[in-house]
């Protein structure tokens, strides 16, 4: 009650400065927002690509049906494996024909089918990672009637590297802006504390609890952070609309991300205020 | 209730402000703390208010010890010790009522009780007619009364007053003293720093402590047995 009134009074007392700290939080979170938007869309693309992360086990032509059935069962028993599909030489040829009609016809005419029979191993979502893929491929290669097991190693690795880079850059850039925002919030708070130094002094003298003295400042920081977060969301949404209308189709981030962003803004504001209070409350 | 045990306060570079001071102020007592300027009266009050820690020795206030209390718990002492500052330290942009209400508000008084209690406190100190006046519209004596009302806000066990009559004329001084006696009559201890010996003489029942250059040189409770009659205040008190 008192805390809220005082926090709002602080806005009124120094609208420019509190505005500035909100704006800085907004800028910091806007960067994070942009990266989130990018990361989210990258994530969507990645998982679409990931769906296609599968292992193809090429079999020798002389593999017996019983051997193939056995391997099919073995691979199907892995908990990471969603399903194993058998592709005969004929199926392979038909598929090749669909995808590359000219070649298909060539093979049909010559009566020779150079394509091997194979097992296609599809993985459970969440297990489409380089090491799982590699482990299963190793397992299959053990069998003598297996020619080879391939999965485009590099490409899976690169996919994951890309995601890591995205995350790292978000962390670094967002962190840098957050630092600047924290410094500005600190300055704003220092001025707010200075403006109220007489009151704080009296509060101490007459026995206000420490937490009570801090509360309005924490609340002020949280409100500034929240306002900044709202602004950042608006800016990010604007960017999203712009990209969507003029460049290419992208998806808007899920609502839960927005909620987390708003919460993060408020928490960040309160946290930087807390740090500033710790420093400056001693001075008055 | 308030007990100083071998309290020494040394300021870096400035030397000793208090030297081995011990006394015990009991519940409901009325006491004067006197001595020359610079003898350590304000320092003593500040130590009791735990605005500062003694360099050596211990200050105990209603069960709280200066040796053990943490920054976090200071508020508990502050609510039990009302302090009237020499320079009042009121909030200038506020009215008399707002100054008292502010204290109640920041010390967890229920919202509904604040205004009535502030009004009651101000009428107790005789300021009912000036309740809405801003601090800078009040005379020194009136500001003094607001400061007293504020110090009483948390129903403290003891009221400390630093030179409360220092800037007041004879009549205003008498008024403030009457007020202190009233407050004391209700059971609150009062410890008042003053160098006005005439004032002390007019209250012969009160206890008197005298500081000289940081040392406690006279305590009326023990004076009959081993009073240093040579000290300035003791001499003058006895010379009438
Ligand atoms: N914060 C401080 N830093 C350094 N020295 C101080 C401080 N406060 C007081 N002193 C010194 O301690 C001694 C006692 O000061 P104190 O204010 O207690 O005296 P006093 O009896 O209240 O005097 P007065 O009657 O003038 O108010 C003085 O020598 C003073 O200079
Ligand atoms: Mg003094």
Secondary structure layout plus pairing:
The complex is a heterodimer of chains A (284) and B (240).
Chain A: H1 2-13, H2 15-51, E1 54-59, H3 65-76, E2 81-87, H4 89-99, H5 101-110, E3 118-123, H6 130-141, E4 146-150, H7 153-195, H8 197-206, H9 210-246, H10 255-280
Antiparallel strand pairs in A: 1-3, 1-4, 2-3
Chain B: E1 2-11, E2 15-25, E3 30-35, H1 41-48, E4 56-61, E5 64-65, H2 74-80, E6 81-84, H3 96-106, H4 111-124, H5 140-152, E7 158-162, H6 170-185, E8 189-193, H7 197-201, E9 207-212, E10 215-219, H8 220-226, H9 232-238
Parallel strand pairs in B: 3-8, 3-9, 6-7, 7-8
Antiparallel strand pairs in B: 1-2, 1-4, 4-5, 9-10
Helix pairs in contact in B: 3-4, 3-5, 4-5
The complex binds adenosine-5'-triphosphate (ATP) and magnesium ion.
Residues 41-42, 162 of chain B line the site of magnesium ion.
Summarize the structure.
The complex is a heterodimer of chains A (284) and B (240). Chain A has 284 residues and is of the alpha+beta class.
């Amino acid at each position: 009650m008192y805390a809220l009134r005082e926090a709002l009074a602080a806005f009124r007392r120094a609208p420019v400065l509190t505005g500035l700290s909100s704006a800085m939080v907004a800028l910091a979170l806007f960067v994070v927002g942009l990266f989130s938007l990018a990361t989210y869309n990258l994530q969507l693309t990645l998982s679409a690509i990931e769906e296609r992360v599968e292992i193809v086990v090429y079999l020798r032509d002389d593999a017996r049906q019983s051997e193939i059935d056995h391997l099919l069962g073995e691979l199907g028993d892995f908990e990471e494996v969603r399903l194993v599909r058998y592709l005969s030489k004929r199926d392979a040829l038909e598929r090749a024909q669909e995808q590359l009609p000219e070649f298909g016809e060539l093979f049909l005419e010559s009566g020779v089918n150079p394509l091997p029979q194979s097992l296609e191993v599809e993985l459970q979502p969440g297990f489409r990672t380089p090491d799982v893929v590699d482990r299963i491929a190793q397992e299959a290669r053990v069998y003598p009637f297996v020619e080879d097991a391939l999965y485009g190693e590099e490409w899976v690795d690169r996919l994951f590297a890309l995601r890591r880079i995205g995350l790292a850059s978000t962390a670094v850039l967002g962190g840098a802006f957050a630092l600047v925002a924290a410094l500005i919030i600190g300055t704003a708070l220092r001025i707010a504390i200075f403006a109220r130094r007489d009151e704080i002094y009296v509060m101490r003298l007459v026995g206000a609890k420490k937490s009570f003295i801090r509360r309005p400042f924490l609340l002020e920081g949280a409100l500034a952070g929240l306002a900044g977060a709202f602004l950042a969301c608006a800016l990010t949404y604007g960017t999203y609309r712009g990209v969507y209308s003029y460049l290419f189709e992208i998806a808007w981030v899920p609502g839960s991300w927005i909620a987390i962003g708003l919460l993060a803004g408020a928490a960040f504001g309160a946290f930087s205020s807390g740090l500033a209070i710790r420093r400056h409350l001693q001075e008055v | 209730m308030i007990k100083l045990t071998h309290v020494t306060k040394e300021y870096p570079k400035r030397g000793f402000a208090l030297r081995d001071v011990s006394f015990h102020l009991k519940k409901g007592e009325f006491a004067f703390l006197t001595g020359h300027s610079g003898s350590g009266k304000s320092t003593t009050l500040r130590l009791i208010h735990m605005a500062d820690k003694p360099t050596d020795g211990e200050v105990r206030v209603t069960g709280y010890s200066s040796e053990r209390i943490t920054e976090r718990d200071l508020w508990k002492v502050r609510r039990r010790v009302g302090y009237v500052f020499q320079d009042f330290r009121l909030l200038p942009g506020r009215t008399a009522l707002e100054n008292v209400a502010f204290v109640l508000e920041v010390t967890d008084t229920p919202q509904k009780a604040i205004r009535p209690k502030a009004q009651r406190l101000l009428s107790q100190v005789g300021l009912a007619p000036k309740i809405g006046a801003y601090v800078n519209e009040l005379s020194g004596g009136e500001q003094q009364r607001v400061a007293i009302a504020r110090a009483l806000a948390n129903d403290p066990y003891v009221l400390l007053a630093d030179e409360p009559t220092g800037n007041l004329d004879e009549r205003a001084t008498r008024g403030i003293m009457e007020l202190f006696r009233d407050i004391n009559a209700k059971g609150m201890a009062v410890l008042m720093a003053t160098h006005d010996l005439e004032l002390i003489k007019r209250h012969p029942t009160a206890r008197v402590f005298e500081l000289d250059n940081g040392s406690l040189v006279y305590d009326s409770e023990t004076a009959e047995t081993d009073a240093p009659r040579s000290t300035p205040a003791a001499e003058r008190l006895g010379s009438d």
